[in-house]
Amino acid sequence: MLAASMLAYGVVAYFVIVLVFYRDQDPHWRWLVAWAISVALLMKLCVKTRGASVPFVRNQLTLECKATIRACAEAYGASHARRVEKLFAVGVALRRLEGAVMRAHRRSGAVAFLSPRRQEVKVHAGQVVAKLREAEAALDHSPHAEALSEIAGLAATIAEQHVDGHIGALLPKPLLEGKKPVRDREVLRVAIAVVLIAGGFVGLAFLGLPDMATVAAGTAWAVLILMAFFGSNWARYLPVFELFKPGP
To answer: Which of 83, 92, 209, 236 could form an SS bridge with 213, CB 3.0 to 4.6 Å?
Structure first.
């Protein structure tokens, strides 16, 4: 899916640049035909790859649990010289796991958008993330072996429950009692990112740069904003660029 997305945006960027520089040259129909063919091929590619991508997306939480368990195992067995590096990797894995937990109900395909179940599973996901953060905090005041074992155990339980389809019971209720749910701020971060990207494009328009420089600088600015807000998951938010495509 990432390769398909990058290909799609590469084609879009190419035709935007071509149409900007050659808009005064005839015939325009050649560019329109090339555009139509490219769009058709990309649509076919998306349809062909969707069958393989849907199971991958739905099982993303399980994969993140596996990555977290592996990070804990490597940190557990790391030498003193590499312990800090491996503990940092555990934190990175947990951030990815938290995001997957928050998105599990949307990716499962089992909860309708307007279903009353949606709020319940969102609250549960927030409590699960709160428990994961509590376990991670123990790394700073408890023996590392004990804290890492707890984190790995939580990840294993989450993976097992998710595989069984229990997205509303990723962790047992006794473990979550009294836990204040962590809020899912993904929508807010996307909104802020869109505003900053739009502001960047508006600012570039006032600089009077050549069209090629404007496109390149705007794309670089947008990618940097996405990386700042979403880290290594920035490529998943590439559809944000659709908001800034030039109109017909």
So the answer is: 209
